[in-house]
């Protein structure tokens, strides 16, 4: 029985759930296109966006307060009935390790198969993630293409992983959007346009709250 069949067995609990982790400082169309395509391609019943409280890999730069990042995710996903947001990592405080989130999601949705959605840049670095073996044993990764990063490098980068774990990483092609939060922050700071890079409601929020002005 393949995993899709396994979860088509008639109970009404969520079958397959996507988790979209990120800093979302701010959320943009790259995130949304990736999440929506993962949802469709892997028949996920929903995608839960989980803004990190403190991303372990981003200690060097100042990150916007979590309340702002959470609110921007809320505004961005409002029109998609399959998208929700969790403040689990924000409430947990401390470094936001994905393994802790995945284990907590398992408790919350014991019947579901969990998928963790990332872009190519993130998955290529996965060997540096906290308790990576355990992480891959507890969820399946969906790695989306992202301009500037080569998913073809995956096997080379992750050659230290046993085959059985490598098979837990699935790849997915999404429409190429060369959009990053870093670029958006810089554009705002320099007074250049961010229109059409992210939802209008998020853009309005950024200007209203005067985010990214003086970083
Ligand atoms: P920053 O520039 O601050 O790192 P970012 O744009 O990379 O921001 P993150 O919050 O770091 O956004 O990313 C969250 C997740 O979304 C990561 O898995 C990342 O790979 C993925 N992602 C971000 N932008 C894109 C994009 N344009 N296409 C595909 N995946 C993306
Ligand atoms: Mg990033």
Describe this structure in words.
With 215 residues, the protein is an alpha/beta fold. It has one domain (3-176): Rossmann fold (3-Layer(aba) Sandwich). It is built from eleven helices and six strands. The chain has helices at 3-6, 29-41, 66-77, 88-92, 98-108, 120-124, 132-138, 154-157, 163-166, 181-190, 200-208; strands at residues 16-22, 46-51, 83-85, 113-119, 140-144, 169-172. Strands 3-2-1-4-5-6 form a six-stranded parallel β-sheet, sandwiched between helices. Helix 3 packs antiparallel against helix 11 (200-208) and helix 5 runs parallel beside helix 7 (132-138). It is globular. It starts with a helix and ends in a 7-residue tail after the last helix. The structure holds adenosine-5'-triphosphate and magnesium ion. Adenosine-5'-triphosphate is lined by residues 22-25, 30-31, 34, 118-119, 121-122, 144, 146, 177, 179-182.
What are the main properties of this structure?
11 helices, alpha/beta, globular, 6-stranded parallel beta sheet, 6 strands, Rossmann fold, 215 residues, binds adenosine-5'-triphosphate, binds magnesium ion
Q: Quote the average pLDDT.
A: 93
> Could you say how many structural domains there are in total?
1
β-strand amount: 5-15%
Low-confidence regions: none
The level-1 CATH class: Alpha Beta
For the sheet with most strands, the description reads: 6 strands, parallel
Q: How far is the first residue's CA from the last residue's CA?
A: 52 Å
Q: Could you give me the name of the CATH homologous superfamily? A: HUPs
Total strands: the figure is: 6
What is the CATH T-level topology?
Answer: Rossmann fold
Heterogens: adenosine-5'-triphosphate, magnesium ion
- Class inferred from helices and paired strands: alpha/beta
**Helix fraction bin:** 25-40%
Shape: globular
Number of helices: 11
Q: What are the secondary-structure elements, in order, as H or E?
A: HEHEHEHHEHHEHHEHH
CATH architecture: 3-Layer(aba) Sandwich
What value does the Rg take, in angstroms?
Answer: 17 Å
Strands across the major sheet, in which order? Answer: 3-2-1-4-5-6
């Amino acid at each position: 029985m393949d995993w899709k069949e396994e979860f088509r067995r008639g109970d009404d609990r969520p079958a397959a759930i996507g988790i979209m982790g990120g800093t979302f400082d701010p959320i943009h169309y790259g995130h949304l296109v990736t999440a929506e395509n993962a949802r469709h391609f892997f028949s996920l019943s929903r995608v839960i966006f989980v803004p990190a409280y403190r991303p372990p890999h981003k200690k060097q730069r100042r990150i916007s307060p979590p309340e702002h990042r959470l609110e921007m995710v809320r505004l961005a996903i409002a029109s998609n009935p399959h998208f929700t947001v969790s403040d689990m990592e924000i409430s947990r405080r401390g470094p936001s390790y994905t393994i802790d989130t995945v284990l907590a999601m398992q408790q919350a949705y014991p019947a579901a198969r969990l998928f963790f959605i990332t872009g190519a840049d993130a998955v290529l670095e996965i060997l540096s993630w906290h308790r990576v073996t355990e992480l891959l044993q507890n969820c399946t990764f969906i790695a989306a293409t992202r301009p500037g990063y080569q998913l073809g490098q995956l096997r080379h980068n992750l050659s230290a992983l046993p085959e059985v774990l490598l098979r837990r990483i699935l790849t997915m092609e999404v429409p190429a959007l060369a959009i990053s939060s870093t670029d958006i922050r810089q554009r705002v700071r320099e007074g250049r346009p961010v229109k059409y890079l992210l939802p209008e409601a998020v853009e309005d929020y950024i200007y209203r709250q005067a985010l990214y002005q003086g970083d």
